[in-house]
Design goal:
The chain has about 450 residues and is α/β, with parallel strands linked by helices. It is about 65% helix and about 10% strand. The chain has a six-stranded mixed sheet with strand order 1-7-8-6-5-4. Strands 2-3 form a two-stranded antiparallel ribbon. It starts with 5 loop residues before the first strand and ends in a 9-residue tail after the last strand.
């Protein structure tokens, strides 16, 4: 996974036949895998823990609701909600340790001011605290069902699978010829003799191979409960994401301003200062040496032309007029014409997107083309832009050396962060020696009628 909305795809080394043989089919190795035993432990632990949670939650909530006619019920309910948030901490840790599930922490309590009363009010207003209470109530019946299934299937499967090792216990120590499967009146069936022992082992093998997948389905429901009731609410997660995106956008804007300031200071501003100095010297020499003054004015004229060209390039990099007037097709074609490597541009859009999305798409392609020209060692580049559903798709592919990596602080990581701030995605596919293909996905927003 990349940084800030950037996804890196790498070509993994091929697995040899010998390695695949050593690894074995997952269906046969599932019963002895650590995952199956952890999920079994999770289901078994769910029964005693769920019982404790249920008893505490029902008792506390009933007591608090019954005492609401007095002021005492309010702090009691707040204490129950605080206890349920503590239960959530324990359950998220259990899910993380045994299921590898990281549900995330819910939004923290934000009391309006310090003090017990403000904390009590915050608990009573907290949606996550009430979801934790609901989890303590709902989890109990599901834990009873899940632990019962686990405690039946797992011992039964392993007991029958290993029956050839302990079948002698029945004739040696009991009056039974073997393990009894059922009894109907005077008729009964026992696993006895070679065929019976083999049949029990085959039945145990089937149960043992099936049980891990049953556990996986049961713990998947537990995972939904943990994520939905003990994790952050979708609204809170979205607010956090938007706050992070706003920070990224602010950082990107500040970085762009610093880049523009640096380019102006080191480029056009320095040239114009030199022109002013040359013109001052030419003014002094005008009366004494008109030819030298004319040469200095001519040189200053050339420097002014260069400064104007740099200013036009800088303005084009920020937001060129051709993009505003004619859209992405013409603007990207103009950029491609000035690229040091041949670039083929294909833009197939039914209409122009919103100005902000169009500008971001333009700057994204420009940065990717700069990367291809400076670092990829490419002989040719293709740029494709199209609309797919409600998304604006960009793809820049080159035939260079590949091996591009989105590192923290690098151009690709920063570009991915800027796209992530508007719910975009950047995918980098860059195998070593195989060229680089960067696909960007932006939300499509219709252009305002006044901007058409």
């Amino acid at each position: 996974m990349g940084y800030g909305g950037t996804v890196e795809r790498r070509h993994a080394p091929r697995t040899t036949g010998a390695a695949r043989g050593l690894r074995g089919p997952r269906a046969l190795t599932a019963p002895v895998s650590g995952r199956a035993w952890r999920e079994f432990g999770y289901l078994v632990l769910g029964l005693p823990l769920g019982t404790v949670y249920f008893v505490l939650a029902v008792t506390g909530a009933s007591l608090g609701a019954g005492l609401l006619v007095t002021f005492v019920g309010v702090p009691v309910l707040a204490a129950v909600l605080a206890m349920c948030r503590g239960i959530g901490v324990l359950e998220r840790a259990r899910a993380r340790a045994l299921l590898g599930l990281d549900a995330g922490s819910p939004e923290p309590l934000r009391p309006a001011r310090p003090g017990v009363l403000a904390l009590t009010a915050a608990l009573l207003r907290s949606g996550s605290a009430w979801r934790h209470l609901l989890y303590s109530l709902v989890h109990f019946p599901w834990a009873v069902f899940g632990s019962t299934v686990a405690l039946v299937l797992w011992p039964l499967g392993w007991g029958l699978l290993l029956y050839p090792l302990w079948f002698w216990v029945f004739p040696a120590f009991t009056d039974q010829p073997g393990l009894q499967l059922f009894q109907n009146g005077d008729h009964s069936f026992h696993f006895q003799g070679p065929l019976g022992v083999a049949g029990a082992a085959l039945l145990g093998l089937a149960v043992t191979l099936t049980a891990p997948w049953v556990f996986r389905g049961l713990t998947a429901v537990d995972g939904l409960l943990v994520r939905g009731l003990l994790g952050p609410s979708p609204l809170a997660a979205r607010v956090t994401e938007l706050e992070a995106g706003r920070g990224v956008a602010a950082d990107a804007a500040a970085a762009d301003l610093r880049r523009i300031e640096r380019d102006l200071h080191e480029g056009a501003q320095a040239r114009l200062a030199a022109v002013a100095l040359d013109l001052g010297l030419a003014k002094e020499k005008l009366a004494q040496d008109p030819r030298a003054a004319a040469r200095m004015v001519e040189e200053a004229h050339g420097e002014v032309k260069t400064a104007l060209r740099e200013l036009r390039d800088l303005a084009r990099g920020v937001h060129p007029a051709v993009l505003t007037d004619r859209g992405l097709d013409a603007a990207l074609s103009a950029v491609a014409a000035g690229c040091p490597v041949p670039v083929r541009v294909s833009v197939e859009l039914p209409a122009r997107p919103a100005a902000a999305i169009e500008g971001l798409a333009y700057s994204t392609v420009c940065e990717l083309l700069r990367n291809a020209g400076r670092h990829a060692g490419a002989g040719s580049v293709t740029v494709d832009v199209w609309k797919s559903g409600g998304r604006l798709m960009l793809q820049v592919a080159d035939d260079g050396r590949g091996g591009a990596v989105a590192v923290v602080g690098g151009g690709l990581a920063g570009l991915g962060a800027r796209l992530d701030a508007v719910d975009g995605v950047l995918v980098v596919d860059s195998p070593a020696g195989g060229g680089t293909t960067v696909t960007a996905e932006l939300p499509w927003r219709d252009r305002a009628p006044s901007a058409r």
